Amino acid sequence: MSNQRQQDENSKQKQLEQFSVSDEGKALTTNQGLKVSEDEFSLKAGDRGPTLMEDFHFREKMTHFDHERIPERVVHARGFAAHGEFQVYESMKNYTKAGFLQDPSVKTPVFVRFSTVGGSRGSAETVRDARGFSTKFYTQEGNYDLVGNNIPVFFIQDAIKFPDLVHAIKPEPHHEMPQASTAHDTFWDFIANNQESAHMVMWAMSDRAIPRSLRMMEGFGVHTFRFVNEQGKSHFVKFHWKPVLGVHSLVWDEAQKIAGKDPDFHRRDLWESIDQGNFPEYELGVQLLTEDDEFKFDFDVLDPTKIWPEEEVPVKLIGKMTLNRNVDNVFAETEQVAFHPGHVVPGIDFSNDPLLQGRLFSYTDTQLIRLGGPNFHELPINRPVCPFHNNQRDGYGRQTINKGPVSYHRNSLASNTPAPVPEAEGGYAHYQEKVEGRKVRSRSDSFKDHFSQARLFWNSMSQPEKQHIIQAFSFELGKVMNKDVRQQVVDMFGNVNTKMASEIADNIGANPPQSEESQVTKSSPALSQLHTKMNPATRKVGVIAEHGVDSKELSMILDKLKAEGLQPEIISTKLSPLQGSGESLEVKYTFQTADSVMFDAIYFAGSKENSEPFNEQVRYFIREAFNHKKPIGAAQDGTHLLKEEKLKGQPGVITNEDSKTFVEAFTQAISQHRFWDR
Ligand code: HDE
């Protein structure tokens, strides 16, 4: 490995290490370094007397604690992050001069933060919502942030409406309910009265909004950006992250139950995967358009409520990102990281998408209140790995000690340095797009078709996915109290599909829509999760067993499942090791600490003892897993219970009686994710 390459991939970690501290084994001191002799009792005038003002140790400790909290992000407050690296497959020099996209041997350090959008910092993670997918690339030319979502379009077309949208999504101000949910009046009132949201709402009501894992969802840059190459030629570009494990989701009932059983479900999944060396991977894809093709489509390429269907503009996979290190401290890293779509490097530029243009203002502004001043770029997680010099000075929390008298440009005292760098030598120069027009507050007519792509999305869904969308609308609108709002939404989505809107209307006691449905017949198969990659790797199998089980055979099956990349974990009545015919086996959960919703599949090993309370628990597990369409397996004494429950022979229910190669058949079923045809 060349020195350059080594330096690149470790540069961020080395930088962070300079700020890392281990307190273990050290003497307790004040922040001034004074050793402290007592940390349990404040200084008092007499054993039972008042605390004294002079107790600087007490005051320092308490004051620091009183100031521990910072404002949570106004959106995307609930997030979780990890470190990793990115490597391009081949030079992208024909399209962009971005340094980190040139050399396949260079590994660029990255920091990725995933988030829900609407909920507070402590809210549950499996709620119905878009997920943020923000990546900071620490490149040798400065930080590049790709601040995306797992849904490729957005609710609104102009940034000026963002505060309205977010006010409508957040808990209603008079009673602060509901938390982390769009199932309430103000959200749907906003939707019905801002119909550009139709396409995004279709995605939000689909399975995309309840991902199985942060490792199993796509990411999208949403806006159209620009790539600019060394020759100054520009292409429009849309960014995609494609998860190597495929795109998979929970079912709604399951998602709601997990929100209670394990509100940390997604971060736990990410943390444990990285901890165990199952590093999440995503390929970076780009859709590219020449400037000449800008007006070739029946939508405006600047409109953030539109996708470029992959079948029309193919996604070229250009590199891979691997997340391989958990954070050391969530506050210092995950909470203090500051993303900004305006953090770009030479070779990447903006389009005139009015949503993107507004974001370019908002992100620095929000950090000023959230992180308390203009020096947040000095926080370890936000520092670039390349040097940075300018004439900015002072402000709250300034850490850099800038030497010398000069802090202005132009100067002679420092030979006019720090000096601007010409474009040819790496200085950033904005793409010289020609613009002209009158100052207007308006929306281009080319942004006014709100339903064609919402309809395209609907057309692209499989039957079960369509059913889930109808159920999601019915759930959400069922929680809307105002009947007029319900009806407005039904009428709005009648523009997408009459049958869909009529079924929703029927479920929520509204009238069928009067609107005309879109006549779009096109579909985009890439949008259906039924066409995603099916990969069993890292799937969790809940293995139910009891003392007296044939542990010899069970450990053989466990080994085989592990060899297939699955993660079997034993659930039993007690946590004590499972005794049986062979070696004793470690029990990870009891019926109190586990639930079927925490697993991708259930394997019932059974028990010789076969007590009724035990069987009752097993029936509950299996029934629930069955209702959530999950694979269920039994190859030992467990088979009889599946027969009793009349589950044997159902799709995705695998026993050794049905298949001689049980483990292979069960693994195959697990890779299929869910059995919708039950
Ligand atoms: Fe954001 N968004 N956003 N957003 N956004 C924020 O910045 C904003 C939009 C996205 O993990 C805030 O640091 C405006 C689209 C992610 O730290 C804030 C508009 C997309 C994150 C902000 C949008 C996003 C944010 C709040 C409309 C997908 C989390 C805290 C023009 C492409 C970043 C913060 C993280 C965060 C403003 C729309 C993605 C207030 C004004 C579209 C992933 O600045």
TrEMBL record:
What are the protein's UniProt keywords? Heme, Hydrogen peroxide, Iron, Metal-binding, Oxidoreductase, Peroxidase
Enzyme Commission (EC) number: 1.11.1.6
Q: What is this protein called?
A: Catalase
Q: What does this protein do?
A: Decomposes hydrogen peroxide into water and oxygen; serves to protect cells from the toxic effects of hydrogen peroxide.
Q: Which residues form the active site?
A: H76, N149
Respond yes or no to whether keyword Transport is given for this record.
Answer: no
Catalytic activity reads:
2 H2O2 = O2 + 2 H2O
Question: What SMART domains does the record point to?
Answer: Catalase
